[in-house]
Amino acid sequence: MPYPELYILRHGETIWNAEGRMQGALNSPLTERGKGHATKQAALLSDIDLTGFQILCSPQGRAFETASIALARKVPFIRTDDRLCEIGVGDWQGKLRHELQPDQPLDDGPDGPVGLYELAPNGEGFERLEARCLGFLSDLASPAVLVTHGITSRMLRSIIVGRGRSGVAEMPGGQGNIFHLKNGVQKQLG
């Protein structure tokens, strides 16, 4: 299915990201480094004409704080959508990643071991996250700038490039990044 042109931003580093904590629905504020990530996003977007683009953001504080910095010169207000929230991590919310004992080895990366998010007891899991993201994308009728979270961003981008939930772990990650998606092709800015 063809999707509108998108710019997908991941929030800047938070205190809990720096500590290696699972956030899920919980929140912690941006660090100074995280505010720097958002400032860099603003610079990357400064020369891009976003006329006609919707601006949609996760209502979670870390994403909204990032959007407020990154898009301050672009839009007078930011609309939120709950479907852009981070994947639910159930019983693991607030826990340090190194305290978790998954029963299988996991590859680590810039967002921690992505597979942990699939294993979280009482968590949302990739199947339900994929359904939520598909619903969101199906409702998009025009180009948009999305401000979201690490795993949710990966799922959205994996769907758009035709990989679905099986491609989430292979999507590039990291804090404070911007991905441009158009005609099923993903390009990282900066």
TrEMBL record:
One of its GO terms (cellular component) is cytoplasm. It comes from Cognatiyoonia koreensis. Substrate binds at R10, H11, G12, E13, T14, I15, W16, N17, R62. The active site is at H11, E86. The lineage of its organism: Bacteria, Pseudomonadati, Pseudomonadota, Alphaproteobacteria, Rhodobacterales. PROSITE patterns: PG_MUTASE. GO terms for molecular function: phosphatase activity. This is Probable phosphoglycerate mutase.
